[in-house]
Amino acid sequence: MELLKELCGIHAPSGNESAMTHFLLDYIERNKSTWKNQPEIYAGDGFQDCIMLKFGTPRTAIFAHIDSIGFTVKYNKELVKIGGPRTIEGTVLVGKDSHGDIECELLVIEDEEGREHYEYVFGREVDRGTDLVFKQHFVETDNHVQSCYLDNRLGVWNALQVAKNLQNGVICFSCWEEHGGGSVGYLAKYMYENWGVKQALISDITWITDGVTDGGGVAISMRDSGIPRKSYLNKIIELAEQSGAVYQLEVENAGGSDGNALQKSPYPFDWCFIGAAEHNVHSSQEKVNKNDIVEMVKLYEYLMERL
Fold first, then answer.
1. For the whole model, what pTM was predicted?
2. CATH assignment of 70-134?
3. What topology does CATH give the domain 2-68+139-306?
């Protein structure tokens, strides 16, 4: 969990993922010699802040977005959302501008018509355009891990665990997912045109609901705001049954992921969202069952060998 803690503490809201990119490239360089197979690394010019790791002869790609939700400083102390963060008054936000480090509080203001807008409470004016994120308070117990940004640093962590033994496949660290996407299209283009990859698993975090429980295993999403192709989904569920991993099936009418961006791309990708479920979605205190994390890694390793 030390790696997960470090990932959750990196400042990388949508559009400003470079710190996470640098961390991952350094981590991969330092640790790849211990992996069973050595990947080809694709990053830098032409990939913006994204990274792709190609192992062997790939058939399937894992997509894990490296960005987080947050806020952008506007004018007159006003804040604009990056993605869909929960706006709980008093939440501590952190960042840095030209004057130094920032640690401030979120203020929620409601107008006469019930509409909310948001401001920061701080001892000085913050440079406009500065992005702020939740301050990390990482808690690990016997059964759970709790922190800001488990969505989706846990999805990134899962992909790094799979990388240790992966023989054939692509691991793709994407950007901008929380604020509408934008990188998946060109990443899909590259891997489809160069390697013929046209199926994907979305390593992301979903939410606890009436039908998806804490400790019920990793969730296989049958649909959210997007609908994966049924034949591909059925194949994944059949393999999941054979794997011995504990899993549960999710059906939702909202939410989205890199899978939605793949479906809207001009490339014939099949995709499925598979991830652990969390409490306190998009807040500073997201919480996930550690057994569900174990089952997530187990299922991904099994699927990547057989899809």
1. 0.97
2. 2.40.30.40
3. Aminopeptidase (3.40.630)
